[in-house]
Amino acid sequence: MKDRIKMIMESQHMTQQTFAQFIQISPASLSSIFTGRTKPTLAIAEAIKSKLPTLSTDWLLFGSGPMYMTGKSDSESTTEKTPSTPQELMVDFEEASNVVTTPPANQSNSQGVDSTRNNNHNIITKIIDNKQRKIVEIRVFYDDSTWETFVPQKS
């Protein structure tokens, strides 16, 4: 499966770092898969499939059939468009970066700021009054089985 993930990355012209960001997993997880330290999990397969819906699940999991789905059932064809050119299979990062998220209509930014301010008033500061401690001696041990003792000067 790791070879098929590499093939997907190559078909999308992505580096390991950008592909990990694209499917929203940590780059370290992807690196661990490629080095053979861990095996791909169902969560990673689902993350890839959610970002690339035209990718064949059978191909991704088992290596059987074509990489991308060509025929769809009637219910799938009404919700998804089949790419007709290789460019449509590519990810357009400019389009993705132009997407702006907006807060829900029933919640405004000013309410969020006010609630944060109110939470700050509920913080209790506890000062611990301990007697100040003084350093009596410091010992440094060396690898040749010797040590030195440092004692602060008395004032």
Structure description:
- There is one protein chain.
- The chain has 155 residues and is mainly alpha-helical.
- Helices cover 45% and strands 5% of the residues.
- A hairpin with a 5-residue loop joins strand 1 and strand 2 (147-150).
- Mean pLDDT is 75; it is low at 73-80.
- Keywords: DNA-binding.
- This is DNA-binding helix-turn-helix protein.
- Residues 5-60 form the HTH cro/C1-type domain.
Helical proportion, percent range: 40-55%
Q: Would you tell me which CATH topology of one domain applies?
A: 434 Repressor (Amino-terminal Domain)
Distance between the termini: 70 Å
Cα-based radius of gyration, to the nearest Å: 29 Å
Class per helix and strand makeup: mainly alpha
Question: Any key phrases for this structure?
Answer:
45% helix; 155 residues; mainly alpha; two-stranded antiparallel ribbon; 5% strand; 434 Repressor (Amino-terminal Domain)
Topology record:
Elements: H1 2-11, H2 16-22, H3 27-35, H4 42-51, H5 57-62, H6 74-79, H7 86-89, H8 93-97, H9 109-121, E1 138-141, E2 147-150
Antiparallel strand pairs: 1-2
Task: State the gist of this model.
The chain has 155 residues and is mostly helical.
